[in-house]
Design brief:
The structure is a homodimer of 141-residue chains. By secondary structure, chain A is mainly alpha-helical. Helices cover 69% and strands 0% of the residues of chain A. In chain A, helix 2 (31-40) packs across helix 4. At the A-B interface, helix 3, helix 4 and helix 5 of A face helix 3, helix 4 and helix 5 of B.
Chain lengths: 141, 141
């Protein structure tokens, strides 16, 4: 057993071959990372899940499995599905808030338009009354 | 082996005891449900995850494990972490949209206030000018 064994081989007390499927994704300096996926999926299933994708995709597989395992350990009933549920609730809240603000902006725009028309009408009215006054003989004549 | 075996015991070709941990959550009429969690976690790990929570929580454990397994089979690289990522992007988009609409509403409200003040000023101006006209001798006198 070499001192360069990955976290998986170290924990499983076995020799770590140079082409070990876990070696690049479960370094020995982060034993918790492997420990978490091992507790939830089992080492053999993690190995299978890594092997079934292309090499350049394996780091993402290891990261996402670790994240899911972490969530399941912190929240044994819902795991990361609980997070999905919370995010859906947040999206619903934001969509309701957005709809409310959009309704408010339509209302304000509508009011502005009406007030603009009223103000224009008032100006026309005032202009007409000033015209009348100019053509009316003042009382002192 | 009884014909009332659950999907797990049926698939694992074993007797299904009356207190089988899988029986209430993996009915024989839905073999895919067990097949998915078995492929990702392995039957033994699913059993452990069910056993470590209280009985009333087990249906939620089975549902969330099935959902995660389903996501991992459909998306072998990211699993349901890909969904979490998409939901975060959607929240970011909604927050940006909300901030934009809130900025727009502040602008419209500000403009309405300014226009209101201008319209009030215009009315005062027009009223003053109409007073002047009334006290000025018309050109034809």
């Amino acid at each position: 057993m070499s001192s360069k064994r990955c976290a998986a081989c170290k924990q499983l007390r076995r020799r770590c071959p140079s082409d070990c499927i876990f070696l690049p994704y479960f370094p020995p300096n982060n034993p918790q990372r492997f420990s978490f996926v091992h507790r939830i999926y089992g080492a053999s299933n993690v190995g299978k899940l890594l092997q079934q994708v292309q090499e350049h995709q394996r780091a993402d597989v290891a990261d996402s499995l670790y994240y899911e395992a972490y969530c399941r350990i912190k929240s044994p009933v819902y795991g990361c599905v609980g997070i999905i549920s919370i995010l859906h609730q947040e999206i619903d809240r934001l969509e309701r808030e957005l709809a409310k603000v959009q309704a408010e902006i339509s209302l304000v725009k509508g009011q502005t338009q009406i007030e603009g028309q009223l103000a224009q009408g008032k100006q026309v009215e005032l202009s007409s009354s000033s015209f009348d006054l100019s053509t009316t003989t003042p009382w002192f004549y």
